Amino acid sequence: MPSVLFVCTGNSARSQMAEGFARRQGTKWVRVESAGVRPTGLNPYAVWAMNEVGIDISQQTSDALGDKDLRRYDFLITLCGNARNSCPVLPAELRSEHWDLPDPARIWGTPAERMSGFRVVRYLIEQRVLELLNRLTR
After folding, report:
1. In 3-state terms, what secondary structure has residue 42?
2. Which of 35, 37, 49, 80 is the catalytic position?
3. Which of 35, 80, 97, 134 has its CA 20 to 30 A from that of 86?
4. 80 catalytically annotated
């Protein structure tokens, strides 16, 4: 069973949403986790955005990248430049790729404006996760 680790800076939004989509779509054939360079806890807008599409990520935890044994994973996906630049030296067998996605937590404005930004990023993440899972099944 292939294993994927999604990484972003705070493990609060992008990597959590990616984990949620991957769990829903590949639950029986891929092991999925997420982590952050400096974990900050789940962003409530991320939880809300995922609930809108029927995925509950409220019980996922915000984990530190430093606590993960990278030898346990087949793929490491970074979702922001800071995470890519902060990753330790990766084991040779660990395949990695970078998805440079905007940070929805940096969107300011009314709650409706912030939610709109989270929806856009949620859509981008869903598309990338589906593409990744499709490649893993070949």
Report:
1. coil
2. 80
3. 134
4. yes
What's this model's pTM, rounded to 2 decimal places?
0.92
Catalytic residue among 4, 5, 7, 8: 8
Q: Answer whether residue 89 shows pLDDT above 70.
A: no
Q: Is 28 part of the annotated catalytic residue set?
A: no
Q: 18, 13, 12, 11: which is closest to 97 by C-alpha? A: 18
CB 41 within 8 A of CB 64: no
Question: Domains of the chain, with CATH numbers?
Answer: 3-136 (3.40.50.2300)
Q: What is the pLDDT of residues 90-115, one digit of tens each?
A: 777 888 899 989 899 889 999 999 99
pLDDT above 90: percentage of residues in the chain? 66
- pLDDT score for 25: 86
